[in-house]
């Protein structure tokens, strides 16, 4: 009975100032703006009125319970423990002695509300306030926002604030700021307003001695801020920017040495999310010579006051530590018309030149290639997926999805009819060129469809936005060739057939062989087939081998299956492989396949399922579904590769029917057709596949990843893995790779022909 009491008897509870307690018929309700709890006891309210005034952090629970009986002590223990658990109170440590940062009595009296505010959230309020007061702050800007920031700092107790000479003008009414500083000095709270002397553009050397630098707008605001970001924040200094971006005011992120995610990252994200004109204006203002007059929109007096006070408050939060700084790892975005405000996390942008090295530190290549592992339910068609696990995984990826600064903007699947299949679509900003709505489908849950759509969108994002890391050219390539085997472009299954006439690629990257774990050099154009490394079309522009998943091993599994799908499909197109029809009777009574075939009839789609003969080569199962749509006369197709035949059949049918289900709704709304991501094999007419024989494979047949790799090895082939991770996707739990397959006998020792691979001597 006394366990709760004994656990907290030596603590000193301090109840928060915003906690209220209210009498109820059954006891007492403790509550604040964020929630509450009820204490059931007829004497609970009387009990609270006697106890709460003493929960001020000065008394131990044991002291408060002296002379009380066992039942009363147990009640105190339960109440205090609940207050701690709900964060309605905190345990106050015993002071170690006199403060090392004594605060003058006049300052304590004048700024009592500020000290009380700190005390509401944290211990040692006077010391924390003194940290804020003695922090030297430079406000770099000559606009009204800078003026209001200086005024907010002065009014709340800052003792040393630097400003630019151009801020002290009648238009900015800076005389009012000086008057308030003078009045504070008369009350025994001196304030120093310093003019920052700069010979030309403001540099970090001009700001030496300041602990926090706030940069606002004005005619030179963006250019000035860019120079400081480009030069790098010095040790011991924090930088907080504020700028207008189109019809939005953006505050943050907080920048300190060694942290990724800077102002340039924020601009790249904001520009990609739709305001390309604002981005163009901002970058041109930075790059082109200054002109007379404003170069862009300036905040009005009301908005300037809001942003300026917000900046001052952010310095207060940062230096006192009473609350976390709102701009640490995120930006605050305010609409300049409605004044609506939202804070969004900011992940380092892969194309930011200032954060590139810091972000890359978290994406180091593994010492060995990860062995493929079976993908989770979202990547296949599990008969009974764990819905709670899917939702938990989806929630863990929410950091990637934000309307202003996310890798992805939002899910756009609310309008779709979620029957017979579940549909997930996500908006992917691909730069200043616009957005793509990447779609995916699932038999069971929208969460599963959304996770698959995120993986597909991650593959497209990696291909079109994320720079390829570790590219070797020139002398670095020559050095690598001395001890690393190179695989020629023609030896890869993604070779387009032009490699024989093309000049040898100038850019290469390191891959790791899944056969023996050895490093291998592969052409960069084979890893980024849609980009400039493949401008000559030496490699087919394809997603073959692109894999995304929760881990590198899961991504490798998906990439390997994707590469096998492409290889089987190309062989079928060229007539060197098989395409055998699969009779529906061969599905037996499998409930998922029965549901998909029934859904096809309901949609009026007569579909055909073809086995592309991959089991005879690698033991993997690759099936293609195709159909002629009576609605449009269009031929559609979908291919799926799995270790298990049933899942491959279900995956191909699911993606085929999903295209028609969603395509009907998109056509009815006059929107672009279904976008499943970049193509596996572009411009394929599925009717061109010649059908031979009939597949007699059983629906329950299955293989394993070790078996696939062994079959590849026996055929003189190998799978090569290139990590393509980016720090932002990893933050949301998505790892990406590219898997490349070699053709038969391209691997040394795998057969008579070894011309596809070489080692420079």
Automatic annotation (TrEMBL):
Residues 440-761 form the YcaO domain. It comes from the Bacteria. Coiled coil: none annotated. This is Transcriptional activator protein. The lineage of its organism: Bacteria, Bacillati, Actinomycetota, Actinomycetes, Kitasatosporales. InterPro entries: Bacteriocin_synth_cyclodeHase, YcaO-like_dom. NCBIfam families: cyclo_dehyd_2. It comes from Streptomyces albireticuli.
């Amino acid at each position: 009975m006394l366990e709760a009491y004994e656990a907290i008897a030596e603590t000193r509870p301090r109840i928060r100032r915003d906690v209220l307690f209210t009498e109820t018929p059954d006891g007492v309700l403790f509550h604040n703006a964020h929630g509450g709890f009820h204490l059931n006891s007829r004497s609970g309210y009387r009990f609270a009125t006697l106890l709460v005034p003493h929960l001020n952090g000065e008394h131990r629970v044991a002291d408060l319970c002296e002379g009380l009986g066992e039942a009363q002590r147990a009640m105190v223990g339960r109440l205090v423990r609940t207050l701690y658990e709900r964060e309605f109170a905190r345990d106050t440590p015993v002071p170690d002695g006199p403060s090392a940062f004594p605060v003058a009595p006049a300052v304590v009296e004048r700024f009592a509300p500020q000290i009380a505010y700190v005390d509401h959230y944290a211990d040692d309020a006077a010391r924390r306030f003194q940290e804020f007061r003695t922090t030297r702050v430079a406000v770099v800007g000559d606009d009204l926002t800078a003026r209001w920031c200086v005024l907010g700092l002065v009014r709340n107790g800052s003792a040393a604030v630097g400003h630019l000479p151009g801020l002290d003008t009648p238009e900015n009414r800076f005389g009012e700021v000086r008057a308030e500083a003078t009045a504070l000095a008369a009350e025994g709270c001196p304030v120093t307003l310093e003019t920052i002397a700069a010979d030309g553009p403001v540099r970090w050397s001009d700001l030496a001695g300041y602990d926090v630098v706030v940069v606002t707008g004005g005619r030179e605001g963006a250019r000035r801020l860019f120079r400081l970001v480009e030069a790098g924040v010095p040790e011991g200094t924090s930088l907080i920017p504020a700028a207008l971006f189109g019809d939005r005011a953006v505050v943050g992120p907080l920048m300190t040495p060694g942290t990724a995610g800077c102002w340039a990252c924020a601009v790249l994200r904001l520009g990609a999310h739709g305001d390309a004109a604002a981005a163009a204006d901002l970058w041109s203002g930075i790059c082109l010579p200054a002109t007379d007059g404003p170069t862009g929109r300036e905040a009005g007096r009301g908005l300037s006051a809001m942003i300026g006070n917000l900046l001052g408050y952010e310095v207060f939060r940062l230096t006192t530590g009473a609350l976390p700084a709102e701009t640490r790892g995120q930006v605050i975005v305010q609409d300049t018309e409605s004044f609506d405000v939202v804070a969004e996390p900011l992940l380092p942008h892969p194309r930011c030149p200032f954060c590139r090295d810091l972000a890359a530190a978290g994406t180091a290549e593994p010492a060995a290639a990860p062995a493929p592992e079976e993908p989770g339910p979202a990547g296949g068609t599990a008969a009974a997926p764990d819905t709670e696990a899917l939702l938990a995984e989806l929630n863990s990826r929410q950091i990637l999805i934000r309307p202003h600064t996310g890798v992805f903007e939002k899910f756009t699947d609310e309008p779709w009819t979620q029957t017979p299949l579940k549909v997930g679509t996500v908006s992917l900003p691909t730069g200043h060129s616009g957005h793509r709505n990447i779609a995916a489908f699932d038999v069971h849950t929208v969460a599963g469809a959304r996770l698959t759509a995120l993986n597909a969108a991650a593959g497209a994002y990696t291909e079109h936005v994320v720079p390829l890391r570790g590219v070797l050219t020139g002398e670095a390539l020559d050095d690598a060739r001395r001890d690393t085997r190179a695989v020629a472009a023609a030896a890869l299954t993604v070779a387009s057939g032009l490699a024989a006439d093309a000049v040898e690629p100038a850019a290469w990257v390191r891959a790791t062989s899944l056969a023996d774990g050895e490093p291998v050099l592969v052409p960069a154009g084979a890893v980024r087939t849609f980009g400039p490394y493949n401008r000559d079309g030496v490699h087919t522009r394809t997603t073959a081998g692109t894999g995304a998943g929760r881990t590198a091993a899961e991504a490798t599994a998906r990439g390997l299956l994707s590469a096998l799908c492409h290889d089987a499909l190309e062989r079928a197109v060229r007539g060197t492989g098989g395409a055998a029809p699969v009779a529906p009777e061969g599905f037996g009574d499998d409930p998922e396949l029965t549901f998909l075939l029934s859904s096809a009839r309901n949609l009026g789609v007569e579909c055909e399922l073809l086995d592309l003969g991959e089991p005879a080569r690698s033991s993997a199962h690759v099936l293609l579904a195709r159909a002629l749509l009576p609605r449009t006369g269009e031929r559609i197709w979908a291919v799926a590769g799995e270790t298990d035949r049933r899942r491959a059949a279900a995956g191909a049918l699911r993606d085929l029917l999903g295209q028609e289900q969603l395509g009907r709704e998109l056509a009815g709304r006059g929107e672009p057709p279904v976008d499943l991501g970049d193509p596996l094999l572009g411009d394929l007419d599925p009717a061109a596949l010649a059908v031979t024989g009939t597949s007699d494979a059983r629906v329950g047949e299955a293989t394993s990843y070790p078996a696939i790799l062994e079959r590849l090895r026996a055929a003189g082939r190998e799978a090569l893995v290139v990590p393509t991770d980016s720090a932002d996707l990893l933050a949301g739990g998505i790892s990406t790779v590219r898997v490349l397959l070699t053709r038969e006998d391209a691997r040394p020792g795998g057969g008579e022909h070894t011309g596809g691979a070489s080692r420079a001597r």
